[in-house]
Amino acid sequence: MDFIDLKTQQQRIKPEIDRRIQDVLAHGGYIMGPEIAELEKALCEYVGVGHTIGAASGTDTLLIALMALGLGPGDEVITVPYTWISTAEVMSLIGVTPVFVDVDPDTWNMDPDQLEAAITDRTKAIMPVGIFGQTADMTRINEIAERNGQLPVIEDAAQSFGATHHGRRSGGLSHIGSTSFFPSKPLGCYGDGGALFTEDDELAEKMRWIRVHGQQRKHFHPIVGINGRLDTIQAAILLPKLEIFPEEVELRRQVGERYSKLLAEAPGIQLPHIAEGNTSVYAQYTILCEDREAIRAHLKKHDIPSVSYYTVPLHLQPVFQPLGYGEGDFPVTERVSSRCLSLPMSPYLSEEDQHQVVSAVKEAVGA
Predict the structure, then answer these.
(1) How many other CB atoms are found less than 10 A from the CB of residue 152?
(2) Cβ proximity of 323 and 269 under 8 Å
(3) Which of 335, 294, 337, 295 is nearest to 314 (CA)?
(4) Widest Cα–Cα separation across the chain
(5) Per-residue pLDDT, 38
(6) Radius of gyration, alpha carbons of the chain
(7) Which of 61, 106, 144, 164 has the fewest CB neighbours in a 10 Å radius?
(8) Is the pLDDT of residue 70 over 80?
(9) Is 111 helix (H, G, I), strand (E, B) or coil?
């Protein structure tokens, strides 16, 4: 059993992927070829925004967003400690100070109740993360940002792309949305890739400059940028994937809800909680369990893969030690990171395989 099944999807759309790749090989526009603009247009329509900017990775999209806002040394950006390191790493790369707030005990996303107290006169942006497939409470976060000097909100939608918040799609919920097309993501390519989303015309133009070394036009560079372009072949692969993505989002919902129904009576396990007004794309199906290692070992004995994500939260990572945080500062994050276990998840996970996973989990907890 695969932890994430990418093979079944590829078999389903392989002829179209092959055709698309051959088109790129034929026209030779390997960098910024026509498929980039085609993909960006399709993503604008899907997310419901005016501008999409393809980029080389999800990490680069976050970096480009911060650079486009003109942030640098002395500035602070508020985010969460329960996330992949890219979220805060990009801040440190340009001298911005990450400021952490704890996550909600039910959704494991940014806790809006703790956000306002973290805002200072140095706060220049807020970066919530859509962990494991659903967005943070973007409505409340946007309201808090608005009444505190209209702070820009950058939505890290690397895991929540495809989900909705009160009927609006992740990526289009704030001033800037960012996502990743890493292969294991809900919408993934066959390498690294990412995209930015915004309604702000001026900001979109600046982000386009930054992704090509700050270049406004050929040999004219008004700002400092990076080499952050999305490869044309990756765009060509994403186009047929995007066509079936709405169906896969629905299949993910079915798999996620089936897990929750089957595991509802398992003792000592906290299941994912989808907040009111949210849908989840279940980038991962993650449970919290008291004896994680015993469950993981039992699953392994049955040849069932499982993964624990972010077991060392960002505030306890050595690289962020100078920020001055310590153990106990973010108790919910620390609880989640010490108990989280992600089970096999994909749109194509069969009911038979799900029952096998659930049976092994229940055996491990004595259910």
Answers:
(1) 22
(2) no
(3) 337
(4) 67
(5) 98
(6) 20
(7) 106
(8) yes
(9) coil
d(CA 277, CA 77): 26
Q: For 14, which DSSP code?
A: H
Domains and their CATH numbers in the chain: 7-100+108-239 (3.40.640.10), 246-365 (3.90.1150.10)
268 close to 365: Cβ distance less than 8 angstroms? yes
156 phi and psi, to 5 degrees? -85, 95
The Cα 159–Cα 24 span in angstroms is 28
Cα separation, 197 vs 173, in Å, equals: 9
Residue 29 backbone phi and psi in degrees, to 5: -85, 70
Query: Token pair 């989640």 is at which residue?
Result: 336
Residue pointed to by tokens 């999807």: 9
What's the CA gap between 143 and 313, in Å, rounded? 27
123: β partners: 76
pLDDT of residue 366: 82
Query: Rounded CA gap, 282 and 248, in Å?
Result: 11
CA–CA separation, 308 and 2 (whole Å) = 15
pTM for the complete prediction? Answer: 0.96
